[in-house]
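Today's session is about reading a structure prediction critically. Students often jump straight to the picture, but the first step is always the sequence itself: look for stretches that repeat, for charged clusters, for runs of hydrophobic residues. Only then move on to the predicted structure, which in these notes is written as discrete structure tokens rather than atom positions. Here is the chain we will use throughout the hour.
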Amino acid sequence: MDLPVQQFRTKAEQELLDLFTSAEKVLPGARNAWVSELRRKAIETYGHLGLPHRRVEAWKYTDLRAWLTEAHPLLRANGLPIEATDIKTALGARVAMLPAYRLVMAEGELRADLSDIAGLKAAGVEAVSLAQALEKPPAWLQQALGAVNPRADDPVLALNTALMTGGIALRLGKDMTLDKPVHLIQLDGKGEPASTFTRNVVVAEQGSAAMVLESYGTLGLKGLQRNAVTEILVGDKAAIDHVKLQLEGQDALHLSTWLVRIGTDARYNAFQVSTGASLSRNQIYALFAGEGSALDVSGAFLMRGRQHCDTTLLVEHAVPRCTSRELFKAVLDDEARGVFQGKIVVAPGAQKTDGKQMANALLLSETAEFDSKPELEIFADDVVCGHGATSGQIDEDLLFYLEARGIPEPEARALLIQAFVGEAFEQVDNEALRDAFAAVSAEWLGVHFD
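Below is the predicted structure for this chain, in token form.
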């Protein structure tokens, strides 16, 4: 691997290297040669690249080196007492109570007392905490971990691989269909500021079908730094719905990366909602590896104050006859900043590709900012591809129309905002999830709809 050598390191960059050095011998799988080598290569990659900054094109709108000025110690599991009511408080009742196979990770540790591990196993799913799996990785995990859709030039991903601790490894067998979602709940802890490196791996074998929901909430920890990665291998003729809800504390730093590989005649639908964290960066790398497949990646983020949310998406059409759709909605108030970077790459020979993306922003103040950078790289000639982006304020004519019918201005504005993000929510087939997302946005707006 030929990477540029970094000549200067900031305080935080060195602290992250020191974090690995001090924890290397006690990280999960430290005695496993394969895991140790995986970590060693990853920390070398990070050491060469350092934290990304605005001179790195993919990070020009989100200068992580400026945001991350110190690295917090690793989050440790202290056996924090957690009740079902704590999960409701962290995620909201609608999300917490969704009918699902729940797997709860608190302080980076799988909590069997709050999880439905037995139910998943009865359904035929192989489910294990990543920390446990790394001690003696099964063959299917060795084939997937770090190999689903590798990115050699991503220092955030490299850091996660070097320091990964908490997370879940799931394997859905051939032709398996789950009757309800798998809900991966990630909660922080309490006490001093800390960092956590979450890694989920989902292998959906041929013909399998399931929904995987990731939720991130807070139990009160201040100054959380989260680096979360999920790898999803969608087998031939498999169908996976992948949903994420991020509701972490307003002082959290949330870095998320999804690595996806899609087989032949397969379907992958993804959706993300974000309202938490001071800085959130959601990276999605999706690769079509088999013909005749479809992808739909959508989402919404609602930010206020000085929050910063960046969604960066790369869809690679490496084979013919695949379809991709992306729709993202941003609602920005006060001095919040939203970023959308969407790129579709059509490789030579990937004929009959159909790819479209759209990003829309609603600016609720004069000082809010939305940066959109849609891109197409097309190296085939028989394709249908397009992209677009819009930003604007609430339509005053529509607002007047609602007010003229007796609806007070605050409720009228909220209705219009709900309708705006609701278009994105409609991309989710699960009605209970759509209702939960509507409740999340209503809470953000500070209104209640009957």
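Discussion point for the tutorial: The chain has a mean pLDDT of 95.
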